[in-house]
């Protein structure tokens, strides 16, 4: 398994609404076209209305690399910048969990 945790901070409330719409459109494509993407979850942060946290889990590094070159992901990466004031990315090394079938 290969994962990411990404924190996005939007510029303002209008940017957050536009970013959420972009995320929804992109998520539809990820669900439909990416079997190697195990989890792609987006969260609003309680008490911080401009922040979004993404939790992404991929079958393996190859699945992540396949995700990154998808047309819908490339469009997301290009469009998101106009809505954001900050991006923080953590790459995750999966140890254990519930709800995920993992072969070691």
UniProtKB/TrEMBL annotation:
Residues 2-94 form the ABM domain. GO terms for molecular function: monooxygenase activity. Gene3D superfamilies: 3.30.70.100. Pfam families: ABM. Keywords: Monooxygenase, Oxidoreductase. PROSITE patterns: ABM (PS51725). InterPro entries: ABM_dom, Dimeric_a/b-barrel. This is Antibiotic biosynthesis monooxygenase. It comes from Streptantibioticus cattleyicolor (strain ATCC 35852 / DSM 46488 / JCM 4925 / NBRC 14057 / NRRL 8057) (Streptomyces cattleya).
């Amino acid at each position: 398994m290969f994962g990411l945790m990404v924190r996005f901070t939007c510029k303002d409330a209008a940017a957050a609404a536009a970013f959420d719409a972009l995320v929804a459109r992109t998520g539809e494509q990820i669900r439909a076209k990416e079997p190697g993407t195990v989890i792609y979850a987006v969260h609003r942060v309680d008490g911080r209305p401009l922040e979004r946290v993404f939790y992404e889990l991929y079958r393996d590094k190859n699945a992540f690399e396949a995700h990154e070159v998808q047309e819908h992901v490339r469009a997301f990466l290009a469009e998101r910048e106009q809505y954001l004031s900050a991006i923080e990315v953590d790459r995750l090394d999966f140890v254990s969990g519930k709800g995920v079938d993992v072969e070691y």
